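Notes from the 1:1 (GR / supervisor)

We went over the backlog. Supervisor wanted to see one worked example end to end before approving the batch request, so GR pasted a single chain during the call. The sequence is below; no edits were made to it. Supervisor asked that the structure be written out right there so they could see what the output format looks like.
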Amino acid sequence: MKLSKKPGFVLALCLLFANVVTVKAQDTWSLQRSVDYALANNITIKQQDVQKRLANLTFRQSQLSQIPTVNVGVDGSYSSGRSIDPSNNAYITQSYFSSSAGLSSGATIFNWFSQQNLIASNKYQAQAQDRLLEKARNDVAFNIASAFLQILLNNEQVHISELQVKLTTSQLENTKKLVIAGSVPESNQADLESKLASDSVTLVTAQNQVILSVLQMKALLNLGFEVPYVPEIPEKIADIPLPRLDEVDPEMVYSAALNSNPLIKADELLIRSMERSYASYKGQLYPKLTASGNLNSFYASSAKYIPTGQTEPKTISLSDQVSNNFKQVIGLSLNVPILNGWQARTNVQKAKLNITNQQLVRDKDNQQLRQDIYTAHANAVAAIQKFSASSKGVVASQRAYDFATKRFDLGLMNTIDYITTQSNLFKAQVDKVSAQYDYIFKMKLLEFYRDQKITL
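Structure output shown during the call:
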């Protein structure tokens, strides 16, 4: 299955991460592979697929219900004692075997289009389930992308923490030598040992966050927790093309989303389904004309006749009885509803209220979609500003750290102040990475809301 045909903005993000660094030593998971696996194995998608198939079966059955019914019946019985002889309706006291067979058929001629409207209602219901399945696939793909980006972010934070631990370790080793040489007080060594312990805790915490985010991904994938999940790391996140803010104006994005969002489409289809259901129930208030036909015959061992010139009766043969007792019936039936506990009228009123309720659901979903888009736009604006500020913060913190390193090496800065400067740089680097991933995610989300695809 081609990635371009999959629903969800995450599928477009797969294209963005196509150029990856492959880790040959392990079985790695690209974002595309993750989405593919989730679409085939996620439990929520499987449940919605079952609902879709049920709706299709209901639609198909309602179509086939227009075909006349045909039934064949065969029965047999053994009687003893006083009973009515089926061959002549006379009372007899003897044991005998009897059997009958028949073919019956029936068809609705006219029912004020109730059945046709029911078929149309089921058709729209099935189409709505298609859209809801698409929505389920979108939601899962969206969550996969979010989890994938979180894993990448956590890995970046582990990388930064590892560098911090290495740097502090190197500074500690150098300080130990200076302490031995008597160049710096022993307290400098103690401060750096404390800093190394703190950095090590930060690293362990970051590594644990990777584990937790991988577990979350496995749950979304419905992947065995014993199966390793190693993501493919994108080579250049910063080179991903992003739309300008004026290209994702919230009102423009909302107008485009109304024509592509699967939930909104499902709401409209469900309204049509309920309108047809309402018309179907109304048709049940009027007379119904049906036709029926029946062919049947029977055999009884008690049926006797006395052959010419003989005195002992003989049982009439099976073929003769079937021929003699063969009956054909054809008829018309007009059923006029008069009083049935107001059940039919109550069904009509319920169907009308269902239309009103689904219209309110549609309006609420439209309102929520609009709110989500405006919220996403506001978050994107904030993410851009945060990323810009954090980028400047890294530059400023790096400059401050470089100056502090020179002063510390010359003995012009105490260890506490130097560690503080170093911590500020570490925090700035982590903030920038987080802001960068957050910025990319929110811009791509807006791009998806707009047109369900992302151009490169």
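Supervisor's comment: Residues 1-25 have pLDDT under 50 and may be disordered.
Batch request approved.
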